[in-house]
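Exercise 7. Given the encoded structure of a 524-residue chain, write a plausible sequence.
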């Protein structure tokens, strides 16, 4: 049992788990213990100050119990302890350190001074009272209060205990008390002092182990908290990345679905386009082949022969126009369309276009349609720099569509100058365009899905080709949605009166295919 108690008393030194931590924490523990001692002393003084006052009062009341020398010594001890208690009361209530950062050297000195004074006072009073057989309880109260109230290191406690025992011996000697007369009271004092020391070590060791454990636990918790925070941060970043990836995937899937719908729509339109092309190509080709076979006969009159030649020629021109449209849309898709910009007078181009389509309209619709032309600039002020062939191609596509889809009424085309742009327009009083088709009208092959396609013919590429050429010239084309009745198409191009430095083109950029297309239209 005694070995077990001793084991616990010296466990801080013997336990290897705490042995290497003792040096790391001893200074911090000492400061913490000093603050704890001050906190306990704060409440201990509430008892000690009234006790000292009563002790001084008893010094005057109970004088019959002691000799004059003893009374004088007791009074000195009581006044001394009362003064120390008042000093400590001031420090613990007005200068009390609450954290280790508040602890100053004088706090440690005052605490050591008070513990020494407390034990010395109890030793002196015990020596004086020993003659009346009351010394032992007084002395033991001082020793046990020091061992349980104040947490101090072992060597420090032993030093204070030796000083107090010396004070006890001196007080007994000065009072002329024989040691033989008090041996019956004090033969057990060493055993009780040893018990007090063991109690002090148990409290000190338990406190020190608890302090080390709490600090290590705090470090562990701090480390765990840091790891948890880092892991939480990593998980948060991972969650954000996953969320972003999910959002990207969702957007990607939506785009894929849209692309799939567009691809299916494009595939359907291309299928319709190919079916339409087979019809459009076969029609003039049948005319060429059929009337070529008729020309083999030698019995055909000359008048019919010339008419057959005209039909074959017109069918060839129609077939060539279809092929040119296909080539143009292919060049636009491959971003290979070329322009040949030059100086020319815009009014002259519109006059030629007007005269051509007057004759074209008579051949197609007779006198049912009236064509008008509007000029936005005076002659001489209409000199511009752009590609006249491509501009003519755009006007031809828009005017042919207007004539095709207008049975009777008027068609008006022309231009005006808006800021630094020349804005062209072609308007008619034809069948118009349904509102659901406004956003689709410039897409390729879009006419292939129209029910009335068979009634009017054509490849459905004219507006798509015109859009590509306008954008290549630096402008844009649009449908006037507010215009009624019929349809009104507008497009603009930059109004250059001088050749830009970055727009110089050599002869290799001239479109031979386009020149052939103009020749086929009868404009060259």
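Solution.
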């Amino acid at each position: 049992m005694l070995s077990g108690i001793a084991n616990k008393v010296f466990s801080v030194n013997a336990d290897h788990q705490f042995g290497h931590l003792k040096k790391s924490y001893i200074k911090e523990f000492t400061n913490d213990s000093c603050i704890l001692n001050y906190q306990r002393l704060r409440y201990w003084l509430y008892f000690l100050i009234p006790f000292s006052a009563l002790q001084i009062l008893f010094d005057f009341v109970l004088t019959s119990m002691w000799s004059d020398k003893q009374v004088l010594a007791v009074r000195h001890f009581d006044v001394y302890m009362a003064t120390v208690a008042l000093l400590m009361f001031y420090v613990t209530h007005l200068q009390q350190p609450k954290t280790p950062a508040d602890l100053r050297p004088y706090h440690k000195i005052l605490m050591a001074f008070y513990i020494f004074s407390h034990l010395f006072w109890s030793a002196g009073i015990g020596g004086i009272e020993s003659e009346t057989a009351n010394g032992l309880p007084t002395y033991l109260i001082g020793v046990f209060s020091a061992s349980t109230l104040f947490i101090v290191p072992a060597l420090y406690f032993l030093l204070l205990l030796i000083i107090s025992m010396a004070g006890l011996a001196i007080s007994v000697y000065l009072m002329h008390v024989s040691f033989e007369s008090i041996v019956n009271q004090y033969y057990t004092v060493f055993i009780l002092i040893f018990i007090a020391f063991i109690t002090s070590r148990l409290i000190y060791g338990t406190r020190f182990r608890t302090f080390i454990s709490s600090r290590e636990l705090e470090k562990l918790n701090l480390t765990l908290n840091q790891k948890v925070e880092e892991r939480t941060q990593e998980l948060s970043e991972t969650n954000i990345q996953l969320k972003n990836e999910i959002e990207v995937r969702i957007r990607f899937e939506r785009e894929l679905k849209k692309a799939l719908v567009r691809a299916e729509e494009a595939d359907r339109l291309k299928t319709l386009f190919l079916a339409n092309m087979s019809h459009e190509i076969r029609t003039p080709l049948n005319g060429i082949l059929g009337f070529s076979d008729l020309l083999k006969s030698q019995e055909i009159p000359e008048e019919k022969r010339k008419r057959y030649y005209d039909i074959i020629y017109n069918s060839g021109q129609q077939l060539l126009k279809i092929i040119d449209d296909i080539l143009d849309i292919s060049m636009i898709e491959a971003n290979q369309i070329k322009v040949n910009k030059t100086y020319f007078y815009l009014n002259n181009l519109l006059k030629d276009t007007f005269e051509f389509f007057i004759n074209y309209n008579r051949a197609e619709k007779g006198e049912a349609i009236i064509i008008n032309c509007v000029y936005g600039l005076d002659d001489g002020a209409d000199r511009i720099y752009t590609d006249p062939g491509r501009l003519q191609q755009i006007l031809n596509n828009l005017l042919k569509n207007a004539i095709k889809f207008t049975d009777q009424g008027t068609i008006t085309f022309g231009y005006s100058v808006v800021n630094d742009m020349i804005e062209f327009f072609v308007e008619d009083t034809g069948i118009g365009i349904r509102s659901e088709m406004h956003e689709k009208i410039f897409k390729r092959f879009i006419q292939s899905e129209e029910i009335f396609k068979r009634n009017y013919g054509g490849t459905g590429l004219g507006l798509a080709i015109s859009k590509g050429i306008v954008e290549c010239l630096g402008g844009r084309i649009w449908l006037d949605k507010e215009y009624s009745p019929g349809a009104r198409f507008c497009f603009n191009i930059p109004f250059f009166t001088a050749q830009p430095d970055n727009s110089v083109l050599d002869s290799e950029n001239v479109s031979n295919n386009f020149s052939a297309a103009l020749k086929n239209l009868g404009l060259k």
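Remark. Residues 197 and 244 are 68 Å apart (CA to CA). Students should compare their own answers with the one above.
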